[in-house]
User: What shape does this take?
Amino acid sequence: MWPIAGCVALAVSLLTAAAQAAEVPAAKGSLVIIGGALRPDNAAVWERIVQLAGGQGARIAVFASASANPERAGAALVERLNKYGANAFFVPVAVRLTGTDYQAAADNPELAMAVRSAGGAYFAGGDQARITRALRRPDGSNTRMLDALWDLYRRGGVIAGTSAGAAIMSSTMFGYPKPVLATLKLGLTDGQEITPGLGFIGDDVFVDQHLLVRGRFARMLPAMLQKGYKLGLGIDENTAMVVGPNREVEVLGYKGALVVDLSGANARQGPFNVSNVRLSYLDNGDRFNIATHSFTPAPDKADGRLDPARPYYREPLFSADILGNSTVVDLMGKLIDSDQPEAIGLTLDSPHGVQPDLGFEFKFSRTGESVGYMSATTEAYSVYNVRLDIRPIVVKRPLYQYK
Assistant: This one.
């Protein structure tokens, strides 16, 4: 454990000199948005953060503001980043950091200057509401520290974050939401279940995390519709989306990301009901441009475009638990390499759950714009522009009987 006074002294005394560095022309930096549970051995992601911050010896400010134990989480992250070549330092701005006044620390000009002059910042996971509480004043205005982070980013630095640190990247984030299925049934309350984020990625893109493991793609839809987003990016665990200055998104890591496109979607009143959503799955190495909506498969898939005339799967495609771990991606991968025009997924509740007779059908369909790629080395799929329609269904009870 680090003494709290030592944290402040280290952050200020060792770093103030670097704050005298020459002004850098205005530029936009990069984001590394991690879906949570980033493993220590995921070298591709850790090394990319260090590279984008300036390479070996890059100074990276570590914010453990979201953590229940910021001192311990901060120390572990500083050590991890330093093992990958950074010169990381802990920033003592956290609601749960004992022995400090987080509001005073967030407006400390020397601490803010130390962060402003760094090459990058890294936000730990935990509760994202603690990050926004720590970096905004009670009246909602920016603290000096938040202004410093924006300056770091605009002049070409990197802002990275995992889990809660990913949620803050969009201007709207989930606060304290209900479970995914209950969210579809009951909707969202603005200011409670969805709250303001920090918006580094811009006001036009919604971000969510732990996406495939927890079936969260479905909760993105009501949030995006309610707040008027047309584009959403959801990233899975131990995986990152690297967003460059040209708004090119590269997926890096263990699993992948979903692109949710609502530009042509139509929603109906009543229980959640939406049609013509477009879903795309980006695997490791794939790229997507936010500005042009163009997809580029990873090099190992470039020659692996699937031929619809030669499908692998030749049976009806169905899942009784579309919100299960990675089920949506498995079903999309089978559909794009199938002779079937559509795949069906359901989500149902316990007989003792809220509105137990209400469920939802997720229908995935191939269109003329649907394209699939498969890697020759990993046999992993990339799937672009599959149509999704979601309709409420009546679940009859008892759902089944014993033979």
User: Anything to note?
Assistant: Residues 1-26 have pLDDT under 50 and may be disordered.
